[in-house]
Design a protein that fits this description.
Elements lengths: L1 H5 L14 E3 L5 H11 L3 H10 L7 H8 L4 H11 L4 H19 L9 H24 L5 H13 L3 H14 L4 H10 L8 H13 L10 H12 L4 H6 L2 H13 L12 H15 L2 H11 L2 E3 H4 L7 H11 L3
Parallel strand pairs: 1-2
Length: about 325
Amino acid sequence: MALLRDWGLTLGRWAGRPDARLVRGGDDPDVERVRVAAAAADWAVVRDVLEARPESADRTGLLWAVADTAGVERWIGDVLKAEPESALARTVAGIRYISWGWEARTAARAKDVSREQFEVFHSRLRQAEEYLYEAAEREPGWTSPWYALQISGRGLEVGQVTARRRFEATVRRDPFHLGAHTQQLQQICKKWGGSHEEMHAFARASVSGAPGGTLLGQLVPDAHIEEWLSLDSGPDAAYMRRPDVLESLRQAADHSYRHPDFVEAGSWLGLLNSFAMAFSLAGDKGAARECFQATEGRVTESPWDYLNGSDPVAAYRKHRSSAGR
């Protein structure tokens, strides 16, 4: 713990090893509140919670909590009729239609998705884009509509040029928006038509160009995990244990959660979980142990679902034990 204090990291002391548990929304109590309200079709509460979290404080986590709630599509249309000029209602509708679209497509590989599924998927994404562009017109300074358009655009395969423009539109409004950078990282990874080299270069440049303590540090472990996923068993482990991979993880950690200016805000738990998994796979048990200790047993679904899609917590526990926590 002395090392953590030297970094200025005040992430709490451990008394033994806390139980591991899955958390969503970074343990933000407003996430559950807005999810319950969305499930109850209580727009007044949903609106109040969202309006209390301004765009400048990054409310995308709350928006996705609403959007991932089944049934929102059944009542959001009435809200739009009652509040025809509401940019917030249009943003909620747009993001719900993205989530609803992916529900129709499922997470299956493209070859295993039927033509009918793709038709529904694309239809819902096109409706989402209509709502999001309307929201962006009503609130030109908001980041959320443009961030969401990055996601719908990838599903609609708008191409790298248009995708880049949407990313740039988001970061003009919020230069260090983690969600926007995460979506652009996915957009330029190999499986979406980019390359490993472009992906890693983007991650490094984004982190080095951000202030110390940045949440964008997560891009580096996420990029390495992305390449690890693309490799066969054997070469994947060898890749993660390469000295240059480990060094890049350490440099990103130094500029992110190890930096004195790092604060527990936003998606900090996701960042530490990503570093914990990456350092575990890279064989640096000491660095992994520090991350596990800082999370205090709070597990984010990503990236552990890559190791165990049905039980991310089990994957976390296994690697935490291997790291000596």
